[in-house]
Amino acid sequence: MQSSARRASESGAHAQDWAGELLERGYCIIPGLLPGATVRALHDDLRPRFERTPFCVGDFYGSRTKRFGGILKHSTHAAAFVQHPLILEIAQAVLGPYCDRFQLNLAQAVEIWPGESEQVPHRDQDMWRGPKGELEYLINVMWPFTPFRSENGATVVWPGSHRRLSEGRLARSEAISTEMEPGSAMLFLGSTLHCGGANRTAQPRSGMITGYSLGWLKPYENQWLVYPPHVARTFSPELAALVGYQQHRPNLGNYEGQCPSVLLRDDVPEYLAATDELRSEQIKPLAEFKASQRAGE
């Protein structure tokens, strides 16, 4: 028991260290998070879809780039990436102060083909029109399937750009290419300026981006459409909750007043009783209010 507690404590400290670096620099690269065999297994499962997926349409996504989502239903190996314990601990450390629980924002495979030019620099938090600089809306994780190099389209980031929101576009000379091997992961904040790199080689570079956002935000990928109940029933309860089958207290994202995980049951009742799902700090004042009402009757 003591050994388990010690391992949990060490894991938490490790996550805090990486979260600190992420918040300080706007990005971090964690080497060797998953075995190469696991990465190859996921990539192999996704190859047929990469082959059949057409190139993107539009200057932002890139006309020589392929993208598709719904990764969790295309490979059973994807859960190891989406639910990596260290990644989830870092997400909790960064996002936890601003939400009751965080959610999966997307899981998207990306393949940059030869001839693709560098993407326009952008901050992913700009998909939401809330105030900027007061909180972090999301963190992203780039998982390479093939080696990422500056010449083949490795993700480009501007270190420290999350602290320079008012400056908008920054000089290209201040950016770096995040070179890394399959099995490693590059994390970056939604406030960090970044872009996909140009591929000047003869081979595509492939990878996957997973993201986690505040649980009260509308996610980039419409998770309930991507993973409807008949798909989410095949997930573990924890994974189903991460993709949206869980309320964000108080009572946000409910189904007929209940946690949407009720839809994953074999026998979903036709009639349901709306049931409170409140934050702990809301329960006591509510109980006191109701008690004072009863006392006055």
Task: Map the helices and strands.
Layout: H1 2-25, E1 27-30, H2 36-52, E2 65-68, H3 78-82, H4 85-95, E3 102-112, E4 138-144, E5 156-157, E6 176-177, E7 185-189, E8 194-195, E9 205-214, H5 223-226, H6 229-232, H7 237-242, H8 280-296
Antiparallel strand pairs: 1-7, 2-3, 3-9, 4-7, 4-9, 5-6, 5-8
Helix pairs in contact: 1-4
Keyword list:
2 domains, Jelly Rolls, six-stranded antiparallel sheet, disordered N terminus, 8 helices, three-stranded antiparallel sheet, 297 residues, globular, alpha+beta
Average pLDDT works out at 94
List low-confidence stretches. 1-10
CATH topology of the largest domain: Jelly Rolls
- Secondary structural class: alpha+beta
What form results from the Cα inertia axes? globular
Strand order of the biggest β-sheet: 1-7-4-9-3-2
Distance between the termini: 52 Å
- Percentage beta strand: 15-25%
H/E order of the elements?
A: HEHEHHEEEEEEEHHHH
Q: Can you tell me about this structure?
A:
- The protein is an alpha+beta fold.
- The protein has two domains: 13-242, q2cbj1_9rhob like domain (Jelly Rolls), CATH 2.60.120.620; 260-296, no CATH class.
- 30% of the residues lie in helices and 16% in strands.
- The protein has eight helices and nine strands.
- It has helices spanning 2-25, 36-52, 78-82, 85-95, 223-226, 229-232, 237-242, 280-296, and strands spanning 27-30, 65-68, 102-112, 138-144, 156-157, 176-177, 185-189, 194-195, 205-214.
- The strands form two sheets. Strands 1-7-4-9-3-2 form a six-stranded antiparallel β-sheet, covered by helices on one side.
- Helix 1 (2-25) crosses helix 4 (85-95).
- The radius of gyration is 21 Å and the shape is globular.
- The protein starts with a helix and ends with a helix.
